[in-house]
From TrEMBL:
Keywords: Repeat, TPR repeat. TPR repeats lie at residues 181-214, 215-248, 249-282, 283-316. SUPFAM superfamilies: TPR-like. It comes from the Bacteria. This is Uncharacterized protein.
Length: 430
């Protein structure tokens, strides 16, 4: 990019972080741990911990990936700033972007290239990429404002303005195929942020026809297919994205999630291996690989991966809880499991799911009064925890509180007829 790049003032600073808050919850729900009930497609809130096909006694194909940390977000083709750019770590020679363009500022110019940046939302890593080629603003000055809307939505401009700007560009017939693809991808991103994945996919389809070498279009379409639960198509798109960009850590990561959703933990692990190779600081990849090992019943390797997560983020309460849960399932290292649950509760006090996990540790340790206290506390905070209700019944049974025990067990079975089978897989029977 030359120092003569076209520059204009925006009407207000680009506070785009707040603009993605509305869809952040959908893409960044780390704590979405659910168990599919024996392949019937229904979902029940059984436990916050690491439930796997091996633990639940059902086929791997029924083991939905909903307990994995969420798919990385859609790549936003965002207007970048500033002459004096730096080389991009995400694309080949000639790619550059000014770092100051990421800061809220009033002076914007087009930059040629793609730069990956990472933000943290509730622990999930956000990877956003900037425009991969310069839209032809200089050639079509009438569309400068439309490009501004199309590329800078999320804070500076609304989603409606973005859709209108992108649509005007798409319908103009005055842009290059590459630039039309950029406009289509951006409009698709807005639709995806609005939860309209069908329209997003339609735009990504058109963008890919115009520019079949754009890895990000395949990546984003894969995310949209994943959001629809179409993991086969998601995997096919991530395959294409990786073929075009073998260094795309997020594509490997997301493909791992999709493979896990299909019950193919071996392929999921292979993808997480690649994500970790490309970014050894990727705590989420270690975490999900640990989940995949746990689903295979390989608790020792799962715990080793959770160890890495905690080394990378010593304040990760969920990782402590999951390591506690895995040790409880394994039935070994129960003293270390108790220490893990206690560490999690120090970080995230009175969390009902961690109290539920610790209740299982106490059950398996024979500390029935302590188990009863934890299950009571968990149910006070979340009355829908079926595992806590059933676990409390077991604890009461062990304490000879027969009437109350039978009531809890019957209530839990009424909510989930298979809960007893689940607990038998945990090594706990009435």
């Amino acid at each position: 990019m030359s120092g003569q790049a076209d520059i204009w003032d925006l009407e207000r600073p680009v506070t785009w972080l707040s603009g993605i808050a509305d869809w952040r919850a959908r893409l960044f729900r780390r704590f979405s741990w659910w168990a599919a009930v024996f392949g019937d497609g229904s979902l029940q809130p059984l436990h916050h911990g690491c439930l796997s096909s091996a633990n639940l006694g059902r086929s791997p194909a029924a083991d939905a990936s909903v307990r994995f940390r969420s798919t990385k977000p859609f790549v936003f083709l965002y207007a970048a700033v500033l002459a004096g750019a730096t080389s991009s770590p995400r694309c080949g020679g000639g790619c550059s972007i000014g770092l100051a363009g990421v800061i809220a500022t009033r002076v914007f110019s087009w930059a040629h290239g793609r730069w990956a940046m990472q933000l943290l939302f509730g622990g999930a890593i956000v990877a956003m990429l900037l425009v991969s080629s310069t839209p032809a603003v200089a050639q079509t000055p009438a569309f400068k404002q439309q490009w501004t809307y199309c590329l800078n939505w999320g804070g500076a401009y609304s989603q409606d303005l973005a859709v209108g700007g992108c649509t005007a560009i798409i319908q103009s017939g005055q842009e290059t195929q590459t630039d039309l693809a950029i406009a289509l991808i951006n409009r698709g991103n807005v639709y995806a942020a609005q939860g309209d994945n069908a329209r997003a996919i339609a735009d990504y389809d058109k963008a890919i026809r115009l520019n079949p070498k754009d890895a990000d279009a395949f990546y984003n379409r894969g995310n949209a297919h994943s959001a629809q639960g179409d993991n086969a198509r998601a995997i096919a798109d991530y395959d294409q994205a990786i073929g075009l960009n073998p260094q795309d850590v997020d594509a490997f990561y997301n493909r791992g999630i999709a493979h896990g959703a299909q019950g193919d933990n071996a392929r999921a692990i292979a993808d997480y291996d690649q994500a970790i190779r490309l970014n050894p600081q990727n705590a989420d990849a270690f975490y999900n690989r640990g989940n995949a090992y746990s689903a295979q019943g390989n608790y020792a390797r799962a715990i080793a991966d959770y160890d890495q997560v905690i080394l990378l983020n010593p304040q990760d309460a969920e990782a402590f809880n999951t390591r506690c849960w895995t040790r409880a399932l394994w039935g070994r290292q129960l003293d270390l499991a108790l220490a893990d649950c206690n560490s999690s509760l120090r970080i995230r006090s009175n969390d009902p799911h961690t109290l539920d996990t610790r209740g299982l540790v106490y059950l398996r340790s024979g500390a029935f009064h302590a188990a009863l206290a934890d299950y009571d506390a968990a149910l006070r905070r979340d009355a829908k925890l079926i595992s806590s209700l059933y676990g409390r019944g077991i604890a009461r049974l062990r304490l000879a509180q027969i009437g109350e025990a039978q009531a809890d067990i019957a209530a839990a079975r009424a909510k989930d007829p298979n809960v007893a089978i689940m607990f038998s897989q945990f090594g706990v029977k009435p």
